[in-house]
Amino acid sequence: MRSKKSKRKKSLLSTSIKVMGLALLVALPGLPRLAAWLANQEGKRKGYRVDQLKLRARDGTKLSTSVYVPEGEGPFPAIIMVHSWFFTRWQCHLYAPYFAQDGYIVVAYDCRGWGTSGDQVHCADPDCELADVEDVIDWLTEKSGLPVNKESLGITGLSYGGGHSFLAAARDPRIKAAVPMNGWTDLEASLNPNGSLKIGWAGFLAMTATWATKLNPRNDLYRWIQTLLFKRDRYREFEEDMRGRSAIYHEDAKCPMLIICAWNDELFDPNQNLAYFDRLNQPKMLYITNGIHISDGGIGPRFWGKDLWGLTKRWFDYWLKGEENGVLSEPLVRLYKPWKREMVAEQGWPPPGVRMHTLYPRRSDGEFRLSSRHHEQRGLATLKPSIFTPVTSGPSLIKFEAMGIGMPGPMQDAGSGYFSFTTSPSRRDYEMIGIAKLRLALLPLAEKVQVNALLYDVPPQGMPRLITHGTMTMEGLKPGSEIVAEMDLIARADLIPKGNRIRLTLSGSDFPYTLPVYGKGAQVVYGDGESRLLLPLRGVD
């Protein structure tokens, strides 16, 4: 009897799942219409309407578009909103009403390949997606018949939309203000930093793009992954594709820009945003949160996203509406300090008082040390990759640090596949704010070598805590011929308390952050001053 009842329950459960799945499939085609109806109902309550249309790009591709139009005669400033990877224009409905109800025309569209737009994704191709941004602006300013102020156009977006915002702001002079959020400026460094493939993020991006690629094996995304994994002889072609899609290799933005990034974003890490901010010769502002990729701005102007979107609106209000709201008198830089658990204002970037301190790896009394002085005695330490190493920077898609949980390191300073150099206890509190830099002299033992650097805060008692990390993979090496290699670690803000030590751990692998490289590894040269670690530190009184 029990067996029959059990079988009936399983059969009922199986049937229920099938019915629910079928209902979902039937409902899917109607979801965009439902979303459009709900958006319009909200607009009626808040003083705007939402029009749905198909825009035709210059190559004939149809782009599904939502246009938020405020009540009144205008003319109104306008904002182009570009959605994130994997999402559609309806993601922008989390933020568009915030602007539409205050007198902005907002245009959000499905990027090609996504949602119900035509073609397939080309990953911000200058001749496809970036041309689409221009075509959307052409339609808005010349063909729409909407009461738009042509001299007051802005652009914003998160992730994929942030990358579009960087690129479009440099490409189209009609854009008068931009707010890229969690975007890239160097796509190669985002996917393959210093030659190390971010295997976790690469897999995630590929899996979440199956709709947009139409599973075309010749799609740009699949072609890049094939090159990075199997066809290294085509790497030059990959580099050219990356440069065409990276703002760092183009002219700077031609408009004022508010750049928003995050310490724990390990897809589009803060380093490239900081580099772009540093060189930008336009009115600018920098806002660095503590979250992971798009976690802070992705929810819109609610909960923890209120301050971020409030600043974004003040930025657009000043530059597009001409409102004297005092935004330019606000701090040039705001960044999250995890040890204070709050956003803190800084006068500039790098913050005043932050200086690069140089530490040298050496051997003293039989132990590996980091010291402000180097000895003339030269030594070699063999770094061989191991799949069993306890050293890892942890999951790269969701960082524990963004939730206030430290990523622990190994208690031992050396073990299978890694070894470490450690400072003496700190004599005072130090803030580390910015990008740590590592220079290593190496004797490669193979033609291809990967070196990972992990920086830890080591308390007198307890587990080491990861501060930041970096990676580099070198190819075409001549075993036995010394080289000098350099890497930037991911920018961070952290506090090194008095009495704690800093540990530099070198590892032959860092999975799942990077694709491991197996082989004989390399010998690290220490002691003669050629290898060194530079830390951006500021003493705390």
UniProtKB/TrEMBL annotation:
UniProt keyword terms in alphabetical order: Hydrolase
GO molecular function, one term: carboxylic ester hydrolase activity
Source organism of this protein record: Candidatus Solincola sediminis
PANTHER family in UniProt: DIENELACTONE HYDROLASE DOMAIN-CONTAINING PROTEIN-RELATED, POLYKETIDE TRANSFERASE AF380
Domain of life according to the entry: Bacteria
Name recorded for this polypeptide: Xaa-Pro dipeptidyl-peptidase C-terminal domain-containing protein
Residues in Xaa-Pro dipeptidyl-peptidase C-terminal domain copies: 313-534
Family label: Belongs to the AB hydrolase superfamily.
InterPro entries from the UniProt entry: AB_hydrolase_fold, CocE/Ser_esterase, FrsA_esterase, Galactose-bd-like_sf, Xaa-Pro-like_dom, Xaa-Pro_dipept_C
